[in-house]
Amino acid sequence: MNAPSSLFNTYNRAPIVVERGEGVWLYDQTGRKYLDFGGGVAVNVLGHAHPHLVEAVKAQAEKLWHTSNLYEIPGQARAAERLCNASFADRVFFTNSGAEALECSIKTARRYHYSKGNPERFRILTFEGAFHGRTLATIAAGGQEKYLEGFGPKVEGFDQLPFGDLDALKAAMTHDVAAILIEPIQGEGGIRSVPTQFLQDIRQLCDENDVLLILDEVQTGMGRTGHLFAYELAGIEPDILASAKALGGGFPVGACLATEEAASGMVPGVHGTTYGGNPLAMAACNAVLDIVLEDGFLDDVKQKSLRFKQGLASLTDQFPDVVEEVRGEGLILGLKCKVNNLDFVKALMEQDMLAIPAGANVVRLLPPLNITDNEISEGLARLEKAAQSLSLKTP
User: What is the full DSSP assignment across 237-251?
Assistant: First the structure.
C-alpha cells in the first residue's frame, strides 16, 4: 500500500505513474505504453518531448531562465509580434496560465470603460455551462455551483445567461455591462460549439452597445480547431482573447490578446506578473509558434480532423447504445455518451488509451495536432474495442 500523500487531496487521479512520453505515447514506470488522446487537457499540441520544443527550452535553460518583467525580454516581443501578425490582436500580455489570462482579460475590459470615464460599466455577461478557470473571479464568471461552493460570497459583477439565448442576452445588455465573455466551444462543458449565428449576433450587439467581446480560447486556441483561433470559424473578431494550454506545448504559458483600443486602459502599474513571459516560457512559446504557423500545418489538422470524425461517426452507427453523437471541430472532439462517460474513459484505459471526461456526459478526445494517420487509425481501433466492451449488443 502506498504511503499517505502530503499533497492536497484535490484530485481523483488515475492509478498511472507516467515516466516519459514520446509523441502521442506515454510510458509508465512498468513500461506499459498508453495512446494519449487527452493531451494534458489540450496542452500537448505537439505531443510529448517534441525535438524542436525540447531543444529550444534546453538551449534557453543554459543561458537564462528568469529576470522578471522589470527588464526587456526579447522573446516576449517576438512571440507577441507573431501572435498579433497571425490574429486580430495589436497587444499581448503574457501570463502563466489560462485562469490568469482570463483575469487579465476581465481587468482589461473593465479598465477600458474606466479609462473612458465610465467606471460603472464593470459587469461581465457569461453563459451557463462555461468554465473559465479556478480563481475566485473565474469561478464567478463560470457560475457553476460545484466550483463556487464553500468559497464564500461569489465575486460580484458576473451574470450567467442561458446558452444560445439571444433574447436573454439582449435583455441583459444594461448600461453597466462592460463585456461579454464566451468560449467558442465549451470544453469542460462537453465540447459544445456555440452556433456561428449566435457568435455573429453577439459581435453585433457588442458593436451597438460599446461592449467588449472577450473570447476564452484557452482550450480551443493554437490550432486546435484547424484554425489558429476558433473565432475564425464564425468570421468574427473579438476585442480581447485569452489563450493558454497549447501556447507553450506543455510549458506553463498564457496570454491575453487585445486590440489597441481594448488595451488602451492598461497603462504602466495597473497590472503585472513576476513569472509571466519569462525567457524560458518564451522559448517554449516561440518554438510552438515555429511549427503551428508553418505553411500547411493547420490545413493538415483539418484533414486529420475529417478523417478522425468520419471514423468516430461509425461508432454511433455500430454502437448506438454507447455513443449518441460526435461533437467538436478540428482536433477538439467529443463523444456524447449513452453510457456513463467515466465508464467509457475506464474502458479506454483498459485498452491502454487515455481520454478525458467532460460535462454533459461527454468523453473528450484531444490528440496532438501532429498526430499521424496511423495513430488516428490505432486510436479508432481502441475506441471501437472500448465501445464494444460497453455495448449491450450481442457480439
Answer: --SEEEE-GGGGBTB
Beta-ladder partners of 92: 257
The pLDDT tens digits of the residues spanning 255-269 come to 999 999 999 999 999
Please report which helix (H) or strand (E) contains residue 169, including its range.
helix 166-172
Angle between helices 74-85 and 279-292 (to 10 degrees): 30
**Kindly report the CA angle at 225 between 223 and 230, in degrees rounded to 5?**
90
Distance CA 151, CA 131 (A): 17
Cell matching residue 144: 457553476
Residue located via cell numbers 465540447? 191
What 8-state DSSP symbol labels residue 38? S
- Which residues make beta-bridge pairs with 22? 25
Please give the Cα distance from 95 to 138 (Å, whole number): 15
State how far the alpha carbon of 239 is from the alpha carbons of 91, 142, 218, 305, 394, in Å: 11, 20, 15, 28, 54
Q: How far apart are CA 162 and CA 156, in angstroms?
A: 19
43, 250 in Cβ contact below 8 A? yes
What is the tens place of the pLDDT at every residue in 151-197? 999 999 999 999 999 999 999 999 999 999 999 999 999 999 999 99
| Nearest of 265, 218, 225, 231 to residue 108 by alpha carbon | 265
Identify any residues that bridge with 95 across adjacent strands, giving them in sequence order: 254
Per run of 10 residues, the mean pLDDT along the chain (length 395 residues) is 78 93 96 96 97 98 96 97 98 98 98 98 97 96 95 96 97 97 97 97 98 98 98 98 98 98 97 96 98 98 98 96 97 98 97 97 98 98 97 68
pTM: 0.96
Task: Give percent of the chain with pLDDT exceeding 90.
Answer: 97
Beta bridge partners of 356: 364
DSSP 331-388: TEEEEEESS-HHHHHHHHHHTTEE-EEETTTEEEE---TT--HHHHHHHHHHHHHHHH
Count Cβ atoms below 10 Å from residue 380 Cβ, excluding itself.
17
Euclidean distance between CA atoms 303 and 329, whole angstroms: 11
What pLDDT digit, counting tens, does each position of 63-88 carry? Answer: 999 999 999 999 999 999 999 999 99
Report the DSSP pairing between strands 353-354 and 177-182.
unpaired
